[in-house]
Amino acid sequence: MTKRNIVRVLGAFAVGGAVAFAVPALPAVGQLSPPAVVSVEVGDEATLVARGAAVSVPIEVLCPAGATGFLNVQVTQRAGSRIASGYGGTSDFVCTGATQTVDLQVPAQGQAFKKGGAVAEASLSVCPDFFSCVFVRDNENIQIAR
Question: Strand 45-49 relative to strand 54-62: parallel, antiparallel, unpaired?
Fold first, then answer.
């Protein structure tokens, strides 16, 4: 090996050592900005719509201002000896950065909803920036009223 090649190899080791020493001092990508606060919560009471053809379910959403998301809710209720259920969702809302209430209409599939207890599950998927998405979910026992 020539003296010139030895100098190149030693130079490469020196540069590699400097990079290996400096990289741990740089912040990780997750440390560059605080994580986005995202939450979803099903309201305690839904409202019958069109004599049970649907229910309107209030969902409290908190997500970073300007972010858009997908919000879905499923409602299931025992109606006599049958099960009434339905699913509704939206992607038409923009986050304000503060807690906001989104009323989702859930059409009944087959059996109509009635006044009384039910179970609701809401899910929210928000991508506040290009590199990170957040998915949250909430299950609640609710009351359906007129």
Answer: antiparallel
Spatial separation of the C-alpha atoms in residues 111 and 79, rounded to whole Å: 8
Contacts of 77 (CB under 8 A, 6+ apart): 83, 84, 85, 113, 114, 116, 117, 118, 119, 144
The C-alpha atoms of residue 100 and residue 38 are separated, in whole angstroms, by 12
pLDDT digits (tens, 9 = 90+) for 84-115: 999 999 987 789 999 999 999 999 998 999 99
- Which secondary-structure segment (H or E) carries 140? strand 132-145
CA-to-CA distance for 134 and 47, rounded, in angstroms?
Answer: 29
Confidence (pLDDT) at 21: 53
pTM beyond 0.85? no
Count CB neighbours of 108 within 10 A.
21
Which has the higher per-residue pLDDT, 53 or 8?
53
57-80 in b/e form (b: 16+ CB < 10 A) is: bbbebbbbeebebebbbbbebebe
Q: In the structure encoding, which two tokens stand for residue 35, read together?
A: 């994580």
Architecture of domain 39-145: Sandwich (2.60)
